[in-house]
Amino acid sequence: MLACRSSLGEGAPTISRFEAGASSCRLHGDKCHVGFMIASTMTSGHDQTSGSLAPTSGLDVLSDMLRSVRLTGAMLFLVEASTPWMSWAPHAESIRHVVLPAAQHLISLHIITEGACWAGLADGPLERLETGDVLVIPHGDAYYLADPPEAERTYGHEDAVAFFRDMTAGKLPPIVIEGGDGPGRSKFICGFLGCDLRPFNPVLSALPRLLCVRAPAAGNGMSYLIAFACNELREPRVAGQVVRLRMAELLFVGVMRRYLETLPPEQTGWLAGLRDPLVARALTLLHSAPAQDWTLEVLAAQAATSRSVLYERFAHFIGQPPMQYLRELRMQLASRLLAEDGAKVASVATAVGFESGAAFSRAFKKFAGVSPDEWRRR
Prior knowledge:
The protein has 378 residues and is of the alpha+beta class. It folds into two domains: 11-262, Regulatory protein AraC (Jelly Rolls), CATH 2.60.120; 276-377, Arc Repressor Mutant, subunit A, CATH 1.10.10.60. The protein is 38% helix and 19% strand. The chain has 14 helices and 14 strands. The strands form three sheets. Strands 1, 2, 5, 7, 10, 12, 13 and 14 form an eight-stranded mixed β-sheet that branches. A hairpin with a 5-residue loop joins strand 8 and strand 9 (127-129). The protein is globular, with a radius of gyration of 22 Å. The relative contact order is 0.17.
């Protein structure tokens, strides 16, 4: 049983969607949000004999990529719902400007801490979620959670945008009361995160439009994270807002870790590649030294395999050859460096393996569609 099943602390502020009148919001609950920076830790390799994830070297490839795409928490809140209820969110692009305008993209995740409900995309089939299950919307689709599944909406698009605006501004408490006076009860944590989508984000590209990660066994690390998050949401304390926002990031990384552990052996894609010893080794080498003058021959030698085997296995899992992946990785690193204050094109070019700023500028424009200077001014 997760910690969120316990009763709310007396000091925890709550809000009903009907009580948010001052902001004319009627969304699925209460939220606490603010931007925060990433602190993620994950493993990149896979011990096939034990079935456990284990790093193949000192570099954690997933953590490195999440840093590169600037995963950033935006909000975390707890919803307490009674039947009948429906909690829905519009397409992420319609709320990004009020939630985390500096981010290119929004991801949402929902963790069922008590009870059960139904969830789905606006144009997709329903999924049944039980206690401990996690719903992730990686690509920004409009979606909903409800119980019963035929429950009707009680707020419109403008109400939803206004709600997210006030939540981001910290005008609403972290606990929301939702729904009617029916006997069915559900509680779930809602988290939103921002990240870069362009020019290269292999983590998101490896995920489906709607991802359901089923509850792990009791006593695992994810359970402790959820319990801690619930406690922070129920009991206001000093620096609670910062903690809650960091928790959104940690919960997302925990979900990705759990997803990696449950991928079927035949699964392909960037995340699945982290479990293959050879592909993970090659990824670790590239991420450890992206500016190095790599060739397929050099990479294969350091990965202790032949060029043909490396090319075949890398392309099978990642969907592209190693050198093409390296070019895209360099462009993503460059986009992050260009966003930093005072970054010079020549310095960025050197940092990602180009001998001249002109060559880098041509390559960057070809890949990203704009020049480095235009990217930096965005």
